[in-house]
Amino acid sequence: MGYYKEFKQSLHDKYDGPAKIAVGEYLGARGYFCTFPETKSNKKADISVLRPQEHEVQVSIHWKDDEFPYPEIHVYERKKHLLETKNPLWIWVLNTARTKAYVIDKKLLTKEKLKPVFSAYLTEERGKDTYENRYCIPKEEATLINLKEANK
User: Fold this and answer.
1) What residues have CB less than 8 Å from 129, skipping those under 6 apart?
2) Which domains, and CATH codes, for the chain?
3) pTM
4) Residue 107 φ/ψ region, left for φ over 0, alpha for ψ in the -120 to 50 degree band, beta for the rest
5) Is residue 141 over pLDDT 90?
6) What is the dihedral of CA 96, 102, 108, 109, to 10 degrees?
7) What distance lies between CA 57 and its chain's CA centroid?
8) 70-111: pLDDT as tens digits
9) In whole angstroms, what separates CA 126 from the centre of its chain?
10) Is the dihedral of CA 81, 142, 93, 62 positive or negative?
């Protein structure tokens, strides 16, 4: 059985705002008017655009360079409530430099792709091997975007 990784405010504070700005600039350069709704409940996606669509943004803290270091991109199961939107939803997974992103259509987040994944963080915290449920998307199924070039 998988567990949810505890929300880390320090990681959120470090990466969330700059990541949202990077994606907002990319969308803005393509004619989208973006808003960044602030909600305490975290039940809404990070970015709303004038067109009826939504964008969720997360940073892979292990993706430091241009090359994504894993064959699969992981999206936490705890974000599954976002899939309930009737609007199109894209999940953006950025590197820590916010220069590259994989974009995943919500349609790819299926039950078949939900797997328990070993979590070093939770294992260290709990003192025993711990697994966390994540959607595991082969990177070939996502769209790689160079945000640095796109935002020029």
Assistant:
1) 118, 123
2) 9-150 (3.40.1350.10)
3) 0.69
4) alpha
5) yes
6) 10
7) 4
8) 999 999 998 889 998 888 899 999 999 999 999 999 999 999
9) 25
10) positive
